[in-house]
Amino acid sequence: GEGGEMNMGKSGNLAVAVALAAVLMLSGAALARQYTLGGRPIDVYGYITQGAGLSLHDDYYDTEDDINSAITNIFGEMNYSVSDNFKVYLSGILTVDWIYEMKHSDKSWRDREFNKSRDKLFVEDEYWQLLKEAHFTWTPGDFFFRVGKQIVAWGETDGFRLMDQINPLDQARGLADVEFETTIIPIWLIRAEYYPQLQLSWLQDMALQFIFNPNADFISDRRIRLGNDKTGIWAPNVEVSKNARLGSAIEHLDEPTEFDDEGYEYAVRLQAMAWDSLFSLNYFYGRENSPVEVSEGLPGTSEASDGKTLLHLNYDGYYPLLRFLGGTFTRDIPVMNASFLGGVAPVLRLETFYAFDNTFATSDNKFEQSDEWRWAVGMDWKVRIKPLNEKYFFSISPQFYHRKIRDYPHAYDYAGVEDDNYMASLMISTSYYLNKISPSFFWLRDVNNRANLFKYQVVYDHTDYWRYTIGAMFFNGIEKTKGFDVFENKDYIYFKISYRWS
Known about the structure:
Radius of gyration: 24 Å
Helix content: under 10%
Oligomer: single chain
């Protein structure tokens, strides 16, 4: 109805009934923790979560007031040990955002065109969304082989990705959905590792890893796209003038076909534990997970319900090559071990790579190439602050990130990046009441665009099975149409109930 009143109707009531039925059925699964097949164990684990998001703003074209999300995630995984050195792993997830059913007939929802994003965001029913991981692992002697749909994590950073370029990222639901199982997209890979047995006093361990992506199914990043009709409640608000904003774009993207060698990817990592430090040397040859696009032709136009003009840009783009050589370094810093702070030494994390001939879209709608250098430094420190927490440590993790574009042009710009790009973040967390209550704070600072993301959260583990979460996210930015400024109307409070079984 008018003013954002909820009009669920019969289909909305049915959706809620199905969600409640799922919770009740799965709550009986807690008794089934392990099965056997052929005398070998099958470990089963899973969870179901029901969340809700409440907007803190209304009367904006890019925002729905009151409840604006009602996401259910049903996750399950199975690990079957065929033999001592051969295992099969399967996991799947069903994601449903009931808000696209509950408000489908609501006038304010339809006026903002959120109803048009229902097909993509109500139920995630593509096979690669339902099937998370599916692989077998064989570990003969000093070797490790894993073949199938999987995740390969190279990075050391939190909140933004640097070295982690192998798996695509799922941000279709904006910045609200940050669970690991729902944001990293597993893809079909062949992974092989070798662990040589070394007898050296200064070298404790070593591993050589090789990754091959045969491009069995090209899966790219699910990006935050323009337009309420494409991205729903997380569509960015990009105003190009007082009376016009960007609507959904018309994209023409060239992507590698299945098993085409243009989509093959190769990755090699040498990792070693030496002198009490963890090193890695990494090389990647493959494709960017997000396209590079230029605007072609005149934009289309339509009128938004608030009277402003929506511009629909035409884009041509493709997924260019990404080639980089980099490394990571992790080590304790004993010299910073302070007894009055609990006597725990902080952990230093360094991560960097140099990329060759990366492709950028220019402000005059051309493609150009430049080398670039990315690096990040972070620290993880557990400290005791007795006036705030008598029993448990605080975990404090600051990070700093720099992306340098080499040979940056002076006559025009590269779209979306400057010659030097900086970000910083801070994560603080602790626990109370026998580790059952865990508050945390996360701050992400976009230095160039003078923009901020703030996340406050409290998790309560009521039992081994039930978890309750409450939190809030806030966005602001000084540079208009850049950084987090486009999400300033998205401030919201969220709640989540989780039931885990094993």
